[in-house]
Design goal:
Blueprint lengths: L1 E6 L4 H13 L3 E4 L10 H13 L5 E6 L3 H7 L7 E3 L3 H9 L5 E5 L5 H13 L6 H17 L4
Parallel strand pairs: 1-2, 1-3, 3-5, 4-5
Helix pairs in contact: 1-5, 2-3, 4-5
The structure holds D-ribose (RB5).
Length: about 150
């Protein structure tokens, strides 16, 4: 799978671990920064990852900040992005089965490295269930299109 990964300074440590993990598993990884511990702004990297996904340069995205919240809020502003903040494997599995999430958000200050990798592994290996959930994801797309219409 082609996967773009991004973090701010608070997610840098976990990002390095995740990049190595994904490479070991044979994925094609695009590390879109940040690349230093200097304080920075999470929306910059959420945007980079989401644009790569929207442009079909990658199949999935992983975003990490201190809590994962800022990344998740930002990513869900982008059309076609379904970002899920997951704190455990159950949330990761359900976000794929029911929501067809295409971006995983993680909080470096919330989950330990082992748990984060386990969440990631489940998220990567769980398919979308489709069926009734297809209808719901389509409804999200419809709302997205309505919300993007300029005022008439
Ligand atoms: C940075 O201190 C922190 O606010 C950021 O990483 C993230 O947790 C925001 O949601």
């Amino acid at each position: 799978m082609r996967i773009a990964v991004g973090s701010d300074h608070a997610g840098l440590r976990l990002k390095s671990v995740i990049v190595e993990f994904l490479k070991r598993k044979g994925h094609e990884v695009r590390d879109l920064g940040t690349h230093s511990e200097e304080s920075t702004h999470y929306p910059i990297f959420a945007k980079e990852v989401c644009l790569a996904l929207q442009n079909s340069e990658v199949d999935r995205g992983v975003l990490i900040c201190g809590t994962g919240i800022g990344m998740c809020i930002t990513a869900n502003k982008f059309e076609g992005i379904r970002a899920a903040l997951c704190l455990n494997e159950y949330m990761a599995r359900m976000s794929r089965l029911h929501n067809d999430s295409n971006v995983l958000c993680l909080g470096d200050r919330v989950v330990g490295q082992e748990l984060a990798l386990s969440i990631l592994d489940v998220w990567l290996n769980t398919p979308f269930e489709g069926g009734r959930h297809e209808v719901r994801v389509k409804l999200i797309r419809d709302i997205e299109k309505e919300a993007c219409q300029p005022d008439g």
